[in-house]
Design brief:
The structure is a homodimer.
Chain A: H1 10-18, E1 36-38, E2 44-54, H2 65-83, E3 86-96, H3 102-118, E4 123-130, E5 136-146, E6 161-165, H4 170-176, H5 182-187, H6 191-202, H7 211-217, E7 218-224, H8 228-239, E8 242-246, H9 254-262, H10 266-272, E9 278-283, H11 288-297, E10 302-309, E11 316-319, E12 322-323
Parallel strand pairs in A: 3-4, 8-11
Antiparallel strand pairs in A: 2-5, 3-5, 6-9, 6-10, 7-9, 8-10, 11-12
Helix pairs in contact in A: 2-3, 2-7, 4-6, 4-10, 7-11
């Protein structure tokens, strides 16, 4: 057996070289079978999420392949965290143009491996195919949580406090940043700040540390992937409520704050632009202190930005007492 | 709320119109959340499979969209059946060119819905995105079985009987059939036979009825998706054995038998061409009668085609006592 064994196809060799090292779960069976198995802990539910990323739509074809892989996995881990689920494993479908760019694939699989280890989320299985189109990646991630404890979009009640994790708008600003020296001259931010924003676009940091705090204390939650304004609107719609948000309390990074200070128009971008992969959640009054303490214990920054209110209007964003118009709201592919 | 509500994006409308009717599992939450949940029965394992299909590679762009959808789901159901798992649900990632062809999408989702119902395998969630390339479909299917009972590729033992379900080679012949009147003049088969072969290529029939018989009696199993010769070679490689196969016992449909009769060269195509979505499995001598009885009770045809033997050579195909060369063996994308 070996490289010249006719029973081992090019596809099998590619899987063996680039993906077997990531397939460390027993149920992956070294990717040598048609399917994987997974043994869920008794008394637990699975949480399942699936995101597709297409070159030219969700990432630039010349983005570093390591980072593309990390983003592809992390957007799913972000969904799991927002639902209160602990990552358990993932499946990967990868459509690649021919001939396969092995340097690209090596860096891609190295990024996946690093994240599979960091987040204790091993590769379980998948499929690798060719395409005449752009690189297309689809990941299905599995998480587990005690039965019946998934946190939903619906569940927010009037009076609940609205929290967001981390900082909002970095990725959207990083995506739209004037390139080269223009970031300094047009936006008035230095190179380090510009790099920070671009980095936040390229590689999200899913708030997995917040998972248990959300499950224990949040009345509703979702990850912020399509812009805070639009995603909070979706959460309110699902819950049958409205919201009042104080724009001045929305957490901005130092870099984003500098960009907004020098270019006030970019604040709308920050609130609607997408790719934050932070978490927005609602917490009842009597759980607020415990939620904050749990987030602190988990070393995840959370900031209260407003309250849930009765009504079915879209969330109202105000700044210094005046309505702040966030425009159309949310990113949509169609 | 409604079509003009700015909080409901085009993407959400598309999901509501075409996919919500298929999302009948409670854990799908009407596709209104970021993730789905699934409550596995205690004491059971999950079996997970994921296949990607790309227009121009796995199907022709002008194949009927209803059938494309059915094939995309059924190839996964075929994997589950071969592992002994009962379907529980699926997730769908769909990358579509813009503007969305709503007639195509309506027929595609109708096909998915029909199969989700027929196979009791509801849509749990997924993602719908745009692409500059061909339509790309990735389905992750979940099945369940009693803990530790998944049937693997490895496990075949010397002396085991080799069975295949249904008939072999129809899809490969259907794919390569001379179109129009040439099927009759070149291959000597009539229109009904030609239609049958093409139909077998377009819409596979996963042998879900055989699931329990495989779990109860097979020592190893896999679905035949890349050609019987190559897939049996993979099973033997995984099990550390070889095989003797009698080509004259391999079950051919009436249509395939006519094509082979008139064009002996097409027999190699039938044995290596792929897309059968039948099951090849091995059964120990003392379970052979029970397996045959269980398959009969499930109304699935199974035929014994040979025996597992000691060795690490590729399976040996013989016809009337002479070695029959199947060539390179198996379809590979790379």
């Amino acid at each position: 057996m070996g490289r010249d064994d006719p029973r081992i196809s090019g596809e099998d060799r590619l899987i063996a070289e680039y993906f077997r090292p990531i397939a460390l779960a027993p149920g992956a069976m070294d990717l040598r079978d048609d399917a994987a198995f997974f043994t869920p802990p008794d008394g637990h539910d699975l949480v399942l999420t699936k995101d597709a990323l297409v070159a030219g739509v969700h990432f630039f074809p010349d983005d570093p392949p390591r980072m593309i892989a990390q983003k592809a996995l992390r957007v799913n881990l972000s969904d799991l965290a927002a639902k209160g689920a602990v990552p358990a494993g993932f499946l990967l479908a990868l459509a690649l143009p021919k001939p396969v760019d092995t340097a690209w694939l090596a860096a891609f699989s190295a990024g996946l491996q690093a994240d599979a280890e960091e987040f204790a989320c091993p590769l379980l299985g998948g499929d690798t195919v060719t395409t005449a189109g752009p690189i297309t990646i689809s990941i299905t991630a599995l998480g587990t949580l005690p039965r019946g404890t998934m946190v939903h979009r619906e569940g927010a009640q009037a009076g609940d406090h609205i929290f967001v994790s981390g900082t909002i708008g970095d990725a959207a600003l990083g995506l739209r940043l004037p390139r080269g020296g223009a970031a300094a001259t047009q936006w008035g931010i230095d190179l380090a700040a510009a790099d920070y924003l671009v980095g936040r676009y390229l590689v999200p940091h899913p708030r997995v540390g917040l998972t248990k705090a959300i499950r224990d204390y949040a009345s509703s939650a979702m990850d912020v992937s399509d812009g805070l304004a639009g995603d909070l609107a979706k959460l309110c719609l699902a819950s049958g409520v409205s919201a009042d948000v104080d724009v001045t309390r929305i957490p901005l990074s130092t870099a984003a704050a500098a960009a907004v200070e020098n270019n006030p128009d970019t604040l709308v971008t920050a609130l609607t632009g997408g790719d934050d992969y932070e978490i927005v959640c609602t917490v009842a009054e009597d759980r607020r202190a415990a939620f904050i303490a749990a987030a602190q214990a988990a070393s995840v920054d959370v900031v209260e930005i407003g309250r849930i209110v009765v009504g079915d209007a879209p969330p109202r964003f105000t700044r210094d007492g005046k309505v702040f118009d966030t425009g159309a709201g949310s990113f949509s592919h169609f």
